[in-house]
Design a protein that fits this description.
Layout: E1 11-17, E2 30-36, E3 44-53, H1 57-61, E4 82-89, E5 99-102, E6 109-113, E7 118-120, H2 136-148, E8 156-159, H3 165-176, E9 181-186, H4 189-197, E10 202-205, H5 211-219, E11 225-230, H6 234-243, E12 244-252, H7 273-276, E13 280-283, H8 293-306, E14 313-317, H9 322-331, E15 337-341
Parallel strand pairs: 8-9, 8-11, 9-10, 11-12, 12-13, 14-15
Antiparallel strand pairs: 1-2, 3-4, 3-6, 3-15, 4-5, 5-7
The structure holds NADP nicotinamide-adenine-dinucleotide phosphate (NAP).
């Protein structure tokens, strides 16, 4: 065991799922609990979490239904991306002081195998960046755009949820890779203004009218879309299908407009248009594209260093505020990545 002078904690706080949400989650679906930390076994590390991520996909895991990831268990701690500092280690793989990204968020302290995490260089960026632009979020944007949507220089790109964590990176990566035009949609005038600052060529607030009309105006007379990066599904997906160019590609990343819905989705009702336009619609999960990590990290580190990609964070402090931060994320309170810093 590594030498350790500080007194190690024997208990930790965690957020548990107290009940499963029906429709929109409410604070009562969550519980803050104090539990005993297990003794470190051989090969394990104890991590003091510095920050944790709240992500839209967690909403699906709160339902008791099978999806691509396991449902969260009732009365047990939630989990998800987190970054923290190793404060005790019983493995040669990790030393006290290492900063690691792992999947035991929603708690102050995590006990995990020394092999089930990624060591990061804290001199490269702030710890929260490894949950966003330099983490799963950034990889989602990069893999979805370059591999799933097979982006080519000159393409006209439309991205929904564009002021969010993934969407804001998609638009900027597309610009860096030589997109013709990049159009974004978001949920407020302030977010639209931010997208223009980030270099999007046009942006609209999807609350301002029918998505197809707003998108048509943003594209300009007679112009179509080559790549649609879909974060929201529903009406905006339908609008994009309507305005795709022949041979266009749609990366189906998320459908947040439906995550809290208790009714049938509103669309798309025009899927058959994909036949005549020879469209490709392809869903993907970031976890299946880990092979792109070295390429993505190299490119993103360069873009960040050159200042050609910027990323926003909406930071909430304190584990006890994690449920509200998660609910606020679903309601669009964030610009860029929603993260929680922990004591
Ligand atoms: N496939 C994968 O592997 C993968 C990985 C990561 C994320 N995702 C998906 O990618 C999407 C974005 O995730 P993220 O982490 O970057 O979250 P995010 O965009 O930072 O946050 C969610 C945003 O969704 C928007 N939103 C909420 N309700 C909406 C609605 N009815 N219509 C349109 N927009 C709505 C809100 O912004 P507004 O103010 O603009 O409404 C909110 O800020 C999500 O659908 C997520 O599930 C998929």
């Amino acid at each position: 065991m590594s030498t350790e002078t500080m007194t190690l904690p024997t208990t930790g706080r965690e957020i548990q799922l107290a009940s499963r949400p029906h429709g929109w989650p409410v604070p009562e679906n969550f519980r803050l609990a104090e539990t005993a930390l297990p003794e470190l076994a051989e090969g394990q590390i104890l991590v003091k979490n510095i920050a944790m991520s709240v992500d839209p996909y967690m909403r699906g895991r709160m339902n008791d239904s099978k999806s691509y990831s396991q449902p969260f268990e009732l009365d047990a701690a939630l989990n998800g991306g987190a970054v923290g500092e190793v404060i005790a280690s019983r493995s040669p793989e990790r030393a006290v002081g290492d900063v690691v990204v792992h999947l035991l968020g929603w708690r102050d302290y995590a006990v995990l195998p020394a092999t089930a995490n990624t060591k990061v260089d804290p001199t490269l960026a702030s710890p929260t960046a490894f949950l966003g632009a330099l983490g799963m979020t950034g990889l989602t944007a990069y893999a979805g755009l370059t591999r799933i949507a097979a982006f080519k220089p000159g393409d006209t790109v439309f991205v929904s949820g564009a002021a969010g964590a993934v969407g804001s990176l998609v638009g900027q990566i597309a610009k860096n890779l030589g997109a013709g035009r990049v159009i974004g949609s978001a949920g407020s005038p302030a977010k639209v203004a931010r997208l223009l600052e980030l270099g999007f060529d046009a942006a609209f607030d999807y609350h301002d009218g029918p998505a197809v009309e707003l998108l048509k105006d943003a594209l300009g007379e007679g112009e179509g879309i080559d790549v649609y990066f879909d974060n929201v599904g529903g009406e905006q997906l339908e609008a994009a299908i309507e305005l795709m160019n022949r041979g266009g590609r749609i990366a189906m990343c998320g459908a947040i407009s439906q995550y809290n819905s208790t009714e049938a989705p509103v669309g798309p009702r025009n899927l058959a248009a994909a036949i005549g336009k020879e469209l490709t619609l392809r869903g993907f999960l970031v976890g299946s594209h880990a092979d792109l990590v070295p390429e993505f990290m190299g490119a993103m580190a360069q873009w960040l260093a050159a200042g050609t990609i910027d990323f926003d964070e909406t930071v909430v402090h304190g584990l006890e505020n994690a449920p509200t931060a998660f609910i606020d994320l679903l309601r669009g309170a964030n610009t860029g990545k929603m993260v929680l810093t922990l004591d």
